[in-house]
Specification:
Structural class: alpha/beta
CATH class of the largest domain: Alpha Beta
CATH topology of the largest domain: Aminopeptidase
Number of helices: 12
CATH superfamily of the largest domain: Zn peptidases
Distance between the termini: 41 Å
Radius of gyration: 23 Å
CATH architecture of the largest domain: 3-Layer(aba) Sandwich
Oligomer: single chain
Helix content: 25-40%
Number of strands: 16
């Protein structure tokens, strides 16, 4: 581990060697529209080559949560943060694998060939079936009943919680897609089984004609593992401290057997690159650089991290920037900036999207649009009132969640653009020349930018 003074000296010479990866100090992507703009204090130092080398290292081994591959990635990320002199910690949290020993869903004696949710509760129940639609706002009493639930709009876990809170003893959920009945993880409160969309719609019609009886019989074996969050704190000068916190994050885990070059070694590479730059740039606001494990299991790492935060920290957090899949060469075809978009949970603008649109307009003469989407680690921050947005290219590339999500499908240009926009946006808050900002979405240099109802995949 280098001391901070030593690290600055090494960077000044133009090279940093760590974990076998060569980091080159380059002056790329200058702001051609304003040579003296404050953006240049960040974007002229960003090196897509650095990010590419990070992706190369991380994607050499799959990083599925709870595996040695995740640990390898975490050790690398932690080492990079420490080499910059940041206050770094590795935060473990439990995750669970589930082995299904028995799964059965019968309606009026007919076997539906259902699939138990990963994490379903175990047990056998026979009860009346009640249609609760999407289970977003359940108003009926479900005491002793099995809830028939439609997939969509909110998480599986939240759907189960909502119906269990009304007394349900089981969940039968049908798909939103035309095919398939194996689509997620629920909580182990009650037996929960998935069926096809056609089966579910057929049951909805049957219930219009009178009571329907269902039986669920599930046996799940639980196996505990450990996943991690990596946190690195960069503190401001004590003589000039706004007392606020800005967080910049990505998820470090990949899908099982997936190299995860774009999903999401690309986001991690930008977090590390911005940490390198901000560590040697005057700031008056604390910045936390975060990488989350178990995003692919349902944002478990970010949810755990936010749940453990003191209220005093949450109250000081004014913005969360999340980067997921920011380097896919074939993503976002036919859209400006390679399809880069900022997704918020509620589909509303906020401080993060205001800053992102302003930064992209200054640098590229194109305002990044915003849209509405969950499915990534900006969700838990939003849920506690922190302005948050997900920066991602959409639609995603053909390699999404496949073994072909490898280094050769990464675009250095897209890495450079996304990191520059997020870096300049975050720097607008943390630079000493900007007064402390509140959570109201009032960008210092606001621009017009549009909502796009654009699907990710």
């Amino acid at each position: 581990m280098f001391r901070r003074k030593t690290m600055i000296t090494v960077l000044a010479t133009g090279m940093l060697l760590s974990s076998g990866v060569v980091y080159a100090q380059t002056n790329s992507a200058p702001n051609v529209h304003a040579d003296t703009a404050f953006d240049n204090k960040v974007i002229k130092k960003i090196s897509a080559e650095n990010m590419y080398n990070t992706i190369k290292y991380l994607s050499a081994v799959p990083r599925e949560a709870g595996t040695e591959g995740e640990v390898r990635g975490v050790e690398y990320i932690e080492g990079q943060f420490k080499s910059l002199g940041l206050e770094t910690r590795r935060i473990p949290f439990p995750i669970y694998d589930y082995k299904t020993n028995r799964q059965l869903a019968e309606v009026d004696g007919v076997d539906l060939s259902g699939r138990a949710f990963s994490g379903s509760g175990s047990g056998k129940v026979t009860a009346e079936l009640v249609d609760v639609g999407l289970a977003k706002d359940v108003q009926v009493d479900l005491s002793g009943k099995i809830a028939l639930v439609a997939r969509g709009e909110i998480t599986f876990v939240q759907k189960v919680r909502n119906v269990v809170a009304k007394g349900a003893v089981g969940v039968l959920m049908y798909n939103s897609s035309p095919t398939g009945n194996n689509f997620g993880q629920a909580e182990g409160q009650v037996p929960a089984v998935a069926i096809t969309r056609a089966q579910g719609l057929d049951l909805v019609e049957k219930l219009k004609n009178g009571p329907v009886s269902a039986t669920l019989d599930v046996e799940i074996q639980t196996i505990e593992k450990t996943s991690y969050v990596v946190e690195a704190k960069l503190k401001p000068n004590k003589n000039k401290d706004t007392g606020q916190i800005v967080t910049i994050g990505a998820h470090h885990d990949s899908v099982p057997n997936g190299p995860g070059a774009n999903d999401d070694a690309s986001g991690v590479s930008a977090v590390l690159e911005l940490a390198r730059i901000f560590a040697n740039t005057p700031i008056d606001t604390e910045v936390r650089f975060l990488t989350f494990g178990s995003e692919e299991r349902g944002m478990m790492g970010s949810s755990y991290y936010v749940s453990q935060l003191p209220k005093s920290d949450i109250d000081r957090m004014v913005a969360h920037f999340q980067m997921d899949m920011i380097g896919g060469a074939e993503a976002g075809e036919d859209h400006p900036l390679g399809g880069l978009i900022m997704y918020t949970i509620d589909g509303h603008k906020n401080l993060v999207t205001d800053l992102g649109a302003s930064a992209s307009s200054r640098m590229y003469d194109v305002a990044v649009p915003y849209g509405q989407l969950g499915r990534s680690d900006h969700q838990p921050f939003h849920d506690v009132g922190i302005p948050s947005a997900l920066f991602i290219h959409s639609p995603v590339e053909p390699q999404y969640h496949k073994p072909t999500d490898t280094l050769e499908h990464i675009s250095k240009e897209k890495l450079q653009q996304a990191a520059s926009i997020v870096g300049a946006s975050a720097y607008q808050i943390v630079r000493p020349d900007t007064p402390a900002l509140d959570r109201a979405h009032v960008s210092p240099t606001s621009v017009d930018y549009d909502f796009e109802n654009r699907p990710v995949d």
